[in-house]
């Protein structure tokens, strides 16, 4: 493997070939897997996108820069391919990017070691990054002229619940699957 | 599968433009539309947007699903927001509203102002979407990287976007292979059973192998990039981009519209316009 020895010395903010490739893989995976969504029964068209878990997972596994790119570009691609438009809700791309960025930052903190367990740590990183990063959707008040209540119930809570469900369930599973691979790749 | 970028505007008038043009027009239009709440002005922008969209000659039958999804999604968004706000409109005081009727059970007042607001919001969304389609379908995916780099976006970011578009078709093929492999083992994604948690768990047999394979496969790309000295110097792009007269005219028009909208917005001329007919119906 190339540059295996450089892993340990890499700063979490460095941008090299590894960062770019993992970021591009993350964004492409998000775009491809977004095909699968699950509408929550009885809700107002609220759907759970399992693919969303890719954003906090890539932040958790590869750092904040990869997480930011995965969320920002991945969400833009999903919107673009679905027909919703690249720029219709550009502020949501930033919100997704922030989730990945925060997951990367939290993964390097004591939050990732919460309860002394990788599963709990990964779930906590996912939950916190989603809850905080998605606060950016309150920018709908500026972009779409929504009032606070609409931004809270129609945007933030609307997306928080399904993304929390997807993140808390899938990020620990992906993190566990990644663990042995990480060793073999020398990370 | 919607997961593959398609270059449907190939050879069209807009498809022959510099790839920076649809990106710039998209950003400038977004900045314009954000400032406007007068549906008459939005309607003019929507018509201009439709003419622009038609110049991309995107076959409707190939994007029918995308249009249907976008229209249904934004319609639901507008209706839900109207219900959620309880009839409240931005800067309007509740006492200034002119109710037409009240929603049964919820008691939400539907006023002349909230209907006008909803219609304006819907047309704003449709204008965004109209301008967004050419970005998705009238730029060759391989041109996105050089276009972003020439727009002075950091070159590593531009290269990342370029790489993302190159990975999508191969990952889509890998996904199909994974689905087929799991089907052989009796897995069916579409089998509807259980709540959202159970359904998310059904994604695990697809997501985990696809993600891990993609990460392992990425090592080859990383090696190739390292061997070619990626990031050691300023990157050049094989594709050369140059604006022609039509490109400049298009971008210049979009800038002029943005400037006019900004001036009008500062002058207070772009505020919500309430349909006089609705006001008359409300007895105003």
Secondary structure elements and pairings:
The complex is a heterodimer of chains A (187) and B (284).
Chain A: H1 17-33, E1 38-39, E2 47-48, H2 54-62, H3 64-82, H4 90-107, H5 118-133, H6 140-143, H7 148-185
Antiparallel strand pairs in A: 1-2
Helix pairs in contact in A: 1-2, 1-3, 2-3, 2-4, 2-7, 3-4, 4-5, 5-7
Chain B: H1 20-33, H2 39-54, H3 60-84, E1 99-102, E2 109-111, H4 112-137, H5 144-150, H6 155-184, H7 196-201, H8 204-227, H9 245-266, H10 276-281
Antiparallel strand pairs in B: 1-2
Helix pairs in contact in B: 1-4, 1-9, 2-4, 3-4, 5-6, 6-8
**Count the strands of chain B?**
2
**Rg of chain B, nearest Å:** 24 Å
Task: Report the sheet with the most strands of chain B, covering strand number, pairing sense and barrel closure.
Answer: 2 strands, antiparallel
- What oligomeric arrangement do these chains adopt? heterodimer
Order of H and E elements of chain B: HHHEEHHHHHHH
Low-confidence stretches of chain B: none
| Interface with most residues | A-B, 69 and 81 residues
Main β sheet profile of chain A: 2 strands, antiparallel
CATH top level of chain A is: Mainly Alpha
Strand order of the largest sheet of chain A: 1-2
Any guess at the CATH architecture of chain A?
Orthogonal Bundle
């Amino acid at each position: 493997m190339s540059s295996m020895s450089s892993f340990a010395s890499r700063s979490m903010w460095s941008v090299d070939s590894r960062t770019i490739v993992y970021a591009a893989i993350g964004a492409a995976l998000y775009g491809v897997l977004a095909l699968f969504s699950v509408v929550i029964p009885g809700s107002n068209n609220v759907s759970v996108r399992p693919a969303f878990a890719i954003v906090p997972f890539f932040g958790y596994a590869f750092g904040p820069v990869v997480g930011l790119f995965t969320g920002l570009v991945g969400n833009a691609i999903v919107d673009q391919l679905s027909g919703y438009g690249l720029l219709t809700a550009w502020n949501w791309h930033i919100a997704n990017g922030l989730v990945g960025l925060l997951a990367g930052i939290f993964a390097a903190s004591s939050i990732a070691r919460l309860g002394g367990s990788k599963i709990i740590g990964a779930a906590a990183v996912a939950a916190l990054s989603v809850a905080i990063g998605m606060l950016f959707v309150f920018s709908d008040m500026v972009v779409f002229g929504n009032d606070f209540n609409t931004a809270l119930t129609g945007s933030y809570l609307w997306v928080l619940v399904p993304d929390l469900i997807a993140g808390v369930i899938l990020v620990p599973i992906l993190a566990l699957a990644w663990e042995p691979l990480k060793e073999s790749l020398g990370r | 599968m919607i997961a593959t970028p398609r270059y449907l505007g190939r050879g069209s008038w807009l498809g022959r433009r510099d790839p920076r043009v649809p990106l710039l027009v998209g950003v400038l239009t977004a900045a314009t539309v954000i400032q406007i709440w007068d549906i008459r002005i939005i309607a003019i922008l929507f018509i201009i947007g439709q003419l622009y969209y038609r110049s991309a000659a995107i076959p409707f039958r190939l994007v029918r699903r995308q249009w249907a999804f976008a229209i249904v999604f934004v319609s639901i968004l507008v209706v839900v927001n109207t219900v959620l706000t309880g009839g409240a409109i931005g800067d309007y005081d509740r006492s200034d509203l002119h109710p037409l009727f009240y929603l049964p059970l919820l008691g939400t007042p539907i006023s002349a102002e909230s209907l006008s607001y909803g219609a304006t919001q819907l047309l704003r969304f449709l204008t965004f979407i109209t301008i967004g389609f050419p970005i998705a379908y009238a730029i060759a995916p391989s041109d996105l990287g050089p276009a972003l780099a020439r727009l002075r976006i950091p070159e590593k970011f531009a290269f990342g976007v370029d790489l993302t578009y190159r990975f999508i078709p191969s990952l889509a093929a890998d996904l199909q292979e994974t689905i087929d492999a799991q089907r052989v083992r009796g897995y069916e994604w579409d089998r509807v059973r259980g709540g959202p948690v159970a359904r998310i768990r059904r994604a695990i047999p697809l997501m985990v192998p696809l993600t891990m394979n993609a990460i392992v496969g990425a090592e080859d790309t990383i090696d190739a990039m390292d061997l070619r000295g990626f990031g050691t110097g300023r990157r050049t792009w094989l594709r050369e981009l140059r604006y022609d007269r039509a490109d400049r005219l298009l971008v210049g028009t979009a800038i002029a519209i943005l400037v006019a909208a900004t001036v009008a917005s500062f002058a207070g001329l772009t505020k919500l316009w309430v349909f006089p007919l609705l006001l008359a119906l409300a007895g105003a």
